[in-house]
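4.2 Preliminary Data

To establish feasibility before requesting continued support, the project team ran the inverse folding procedure on a target of 272 residues. The structure was first converted into the token representation described in Section 3, and no sequence information of any kind was made available to the design step. The complete token record follows.
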């Protein structure tokens, strides 16, 4: 598949990356109880409507199965026509970080349809390695195994972020989470910020997405991804749920903001 290099391509790519990142951060944390739940979020870019996110979450028998649907609206939809669905499955155990087992994502982009990322996480003598599944459509070779080892998929990453926020083990409230999305390897570096008001019921954290490998065209099929570290402002409820209230990430020097809208009783009856 040739690389799309139209004038709108860099903006479309960066917006899609920013929206996918904040959506990944939103997914597991929208859970308010142990049974199935559906939640809706809205994205705004430079103050204008930019995207809609619908989450379907399921937990049972110490395992999770989360699904997310994303679609752009407004100007970003005209530039990218981006739509995506992703599914993450894994294990949850007491006092242990989330352990991914399978990750599958499909997306449509202008001139690129039905692209698929498929990964299985395989234990090799105590080291968990992400391997491509048979449905993966990438034409590029995978990153070296050292970059695919002991890292989690994007949708499992925030399950670990939530655990780190809840535990607050480090004296300075810092944490690091390795992430591999099937083409790129990056770290989520986090720091809990001091409270600005006593008893406000919210917790603020600053995240930095630090690129490690697969950027600047090394193995990516998405053109020329920005390899600079990217800051993310995260606001969550300061309780056991650690539910995000807003996530902000800059895209072309303008803020992309994702805000919680409402919960739904079921996916079938959940309006966009």
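Position-by-position output of the design step:
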């Amino acid at each position: 598949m040739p690389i799309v290099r139209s004038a709108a391509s860099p903006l479309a790519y960066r917006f899609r990356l920013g929206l996918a990142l904040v959506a990944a951060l939103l997914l597991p944390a929208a859970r308010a109880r142990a049974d199935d739940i559906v939640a809706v979020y809205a994205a705004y870019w430079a103050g204008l409507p930019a995207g809609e996110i619908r989450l379907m979450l399921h937990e049972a028998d110490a395992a999770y199965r989360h699904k997310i649907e994303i679609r752009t609206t407004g100007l970003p939809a005209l530039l990218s026509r981006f739509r995506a669905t992703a599914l993450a499955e894994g294990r949850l155990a007491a006092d242990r970080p989330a352990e991914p087992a399978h990750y599958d994502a499909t997306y449509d982009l202008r001139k690129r349809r039905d692209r698929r990322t498929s990964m299985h996480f395989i234990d090799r003598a105590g080291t968990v390695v992400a391997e491509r599944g048979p449905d993966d459509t990438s034409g590029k070779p995978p990153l070296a195994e050292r970059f695919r080892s002991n890292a989690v998929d994007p949708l499992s990453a925030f399950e670990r972020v939530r655990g780190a926020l809840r535990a607050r083990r480090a004296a300075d409230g810092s944490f690091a989470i390795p992430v591999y999305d099937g083409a790129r390897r990056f770290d989520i570096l986090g720091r809990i910020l001091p409270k600005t008001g006593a008893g406000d019921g919210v917790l603020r954290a600053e995240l930095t997405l630090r690129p490690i490998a697969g950027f600047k065209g090394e193995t990516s099929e998405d053109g020329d991804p920005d390899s600079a570290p990217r800051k993310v402002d995260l606001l969550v409820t300061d309780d056991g749920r650690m539910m995000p209230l807003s996530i902000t990430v800059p895209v072309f020097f303008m803020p992309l903001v994702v805000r919680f809208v409402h919960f739904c009783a079921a996916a079938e009856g959940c309006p966009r």
